[in-house]
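Lecture 7 notes: from sequence to structure.

We start with a single chain of 193 residues. Read the sequence below before looking at the structure.
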Amino acid sequence: NKAELVRSMDYPAITAMDEFSRGPSHVTMLANPILDRGTVSITNQDEKVSVKVCADDDWMVVGTDNTNGSGDDMDLYNSSNVLDEAIRNRFDLYVRVPYAPETVERDIITQLAGDTLSSDDIRKLAHFSAMCHKGYSDRKIRTAFSIRNLIAIVALCKPGTSITQAIGLNFQNRVSKSEQPDIAEMVRAIWGA
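Now the structure, written as tokens:
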């Protein structure tokens, strides 16, 4: 019985390995032959026979990672491992996905919010998000703010929670105590609350 990964190799597909660097090295190293040659040998436990499985020509693997496989120098992703150079070398390309621009996030919030938030609050929440991204990129704050946060904040607003309360519940209460005054100041600067 083939595992999902091996079964996916039979088809023209993209197989995603999310948070790849969080896997223990003895597991990530098992991906070497798959990434290198598109093959894997599996053993049928009943018959003790090793079978070589070759990937479809249009099958590919992508891995996601917050540290580019090189570990974390800020202790934000401390469960991520530094990937062995042999495994890193088997990924053909590396792509950094930047945060969405403020205008795109504004459109996302508009879609999520429906008539829950005013256009002014939508604009302000997109601006708050952009400020968090900038602060994180500049290493002035250590807690990332993502689309997940936007989704949660909008969801918290739907039953009537104010947007500043929703930010407090979802984000401000999660950041370190040393960051909380900075986040509170950003909220005050934007909403005047």
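The two ends are 59 Å apart (CA to CA). Keep this in mind for problem set 3.
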